[in-house]
Amino acid sequence: MSTTDDTTTPSRFSAVHDGPVLRVTITNPKRKNAIDYDTMVGLGDTFLAAAEDRSVRAIVLTGEGGDFCTGADLSATASEAQRGITPEMTMDSAGRLVRSIVDAPVPVVARVKGAAAGIGVALALAADLTYAADDSYLLLAFINIGLMPDGGAAAMVAAAAGRPLAAEMALLGDRLPATEAHKYGLITRVLPAADLDATVEAAADKLAHGPRRALELTKRALNQAALTSLDAALAAEKAGQIELLQSPDFMEGATAMLQKRKAVFN
Q1: Alpha carbon 190 to its chain's center
Q2: Which DSSP category does 69 fall into?
Q3: What residues of the chain score a pLDDT lower than 50?
Q4: What count of other Cβ atoms lies within 10 Å of the Cβ of residue 259?
Q5: Measured between alpha carbons, how far is 222 from 128 in angstroms, rounded to an integer?
Q6: What domains can you pick out in the chain, each with its CATH number?
Q7: Half-sphere exposure of 215 (CA within 13 A, CB side)
Q8: Around Cβ 161, how many Cβ atoms within 10 Å?
Q9: In whole angstroms, what is the distance from residue 25 CA to residue 213 CA?
């Protein structure tokens, strides 16, 4: 099996064509695959480009190392502000990325190990098939740093599992083990870590050799039925998060996280 590396960017992800399968990997393992603004933009560009590439028949999204994605890289916040990246730009890039996954004309398979936190939850749930290792978990950690969920995460949790679980995850900010997430219908299947890759590969191979147009229309119908509130949620998140990203509570929450201490909110 041959692979070629089409895109390796300073924004810490890679996109590799492996025959008809595009393998997109977040490559920031030292930060547990937290993503900064440039990475969100680059990932969005990659999914949008894949939508126009008829040679791509399926996409696998994962993270390098032991975690899927732990959300926004708070260590990049100060440098991004100095570069003129505004909260509005950040929110637009997050919404664009999630929409590019949901709207991709080919199926997207998420391979989840370790933590899927913050916008990592949105990326995992935006995929059409989400396979997770049995030691992985979902975490809407936003409230812990004075923010609200974004990337449509709360809407996607509510669409799959209902408002009570979405409220518990979003308001309490506690981990949801993959086994519980599967029970509530949030992910496709939970597997022993040793079996995860084989299951992902089998699914990707079957999708990549399936009827492309039929898969596209099936995916579109499923999303239209299940994600009717996604656009409204993204708009509400943008408005709320722009305010919160400029708040004293976020400054305290982000500082506390980087200093590995408990935040003290006003």
Answers
A1: 17
A2: B
A3: 1-9
A4: 9
A5: 9
A6: 13-194+208-259 (3.90.226.10)
A7: 19
A8: 19
A9: 25
Task: Give residue 67's identity as a one-letter amino acid code.
Answer: D
Q: Which amino acid is at 189?
A: R
What's residue 10's pLDDT? 62
Which residues fall within 8 angstroms of residue 71, CB to CB, at 6 or more apart?
34, 35, 117, 118, 119, 120, 141, 142
Cα distance between residue 176 and residue 139, in whole Å:
6
Please write the tens of the pLDDT for every residue from 188-230.
999 999 999 999 999 999 999 999 999 999 999 999 999 999 9
What is the rounded CA–CA span in Å between residue 263 and residue 63?
A: 28
What is the C-alpha separation between 172 and 140, in angstroms, rounded? 9
Question: What residues does 176 pair with on adjacent strands?
Answer: 138
Q: What tokens were used for 79?
A: 């440098």
3-state secondary structure of 108: strand
DSSP string for residues in 48-83: HHHHH-TT--EEEEEESTT-SB-SB-GGGHHHHHHT
Which tokens sit at 150?
């974004």
The pTM for the full model equals 0.94
How many whole angstroms separate alpha carbon 22 and alpha carbon 226?
Answer: 25
What's residue 266's pLDDT? 86
User: Which residues face 190 on adjacent strands?
Assistant: 132
